[in-house]
Amino acid sequence: MKFQPDHLDGVNAVSRLESGRIWIHGTLFETSLIVPWRGEVQAWPATQPQQLQASHFEPLLALEPELVIFGSGPRHSFVSPQHYRALIERRIGFETAGPSTCW
Predict the structure, then answer these.
(1) Closest CA relative to residue 36, chosen from 61, 3, 2
(2) What CA–CA distance (Å, rounded) separates 50 from 81?
(3) Contact status, residue 5 vs residue 77, Cβ threshold 8 Å
(4) Contact at 8 Å (CB) between 55 and 42?
(5) Rounded CA gap, 10 and 37, in Å?
């Protein structure tokens, strides 16, 4: 048996996930978000994968992630690499998660 803490101090942990809804440490969000592993959860202006532009990925660069996991919403959608080229150039991994993620 392995015990896990219910709350990880200073870390943004997903505590619950439903279609169109996500809870970060028990706080409900129903909009598109940037969820860094530490720090403040941020609103993300894109609400549909089809709306994405390269400028939507610029705020991620300031977070200096090693990996970005993109939640594509109720239908699995892939983002054109031209939109996240800045991540590629900085050798930041990019993965797409399908249904059950928040859009």
Answers:
(1) 61
(2) 13
(3) no
(4) no
(5) 8
Residue 103 banded pLDDT, cuts 50, 70, 90: very low
What domains, with CATH codes, occur in the chain? 14-97 (3.40.1230.10)
Alpha helices in 29-103 (DSSP H): 58-62, 85-89
Chain segment 39-57, per-residue pLDDT in tens: 999 998 888 888 889 999 9
Sheet-wide strand order for 27-29: 14-18, 21-24, 27-29
Q: Which tokens belong to 95?
A: 């993965």
pTM: 0.76
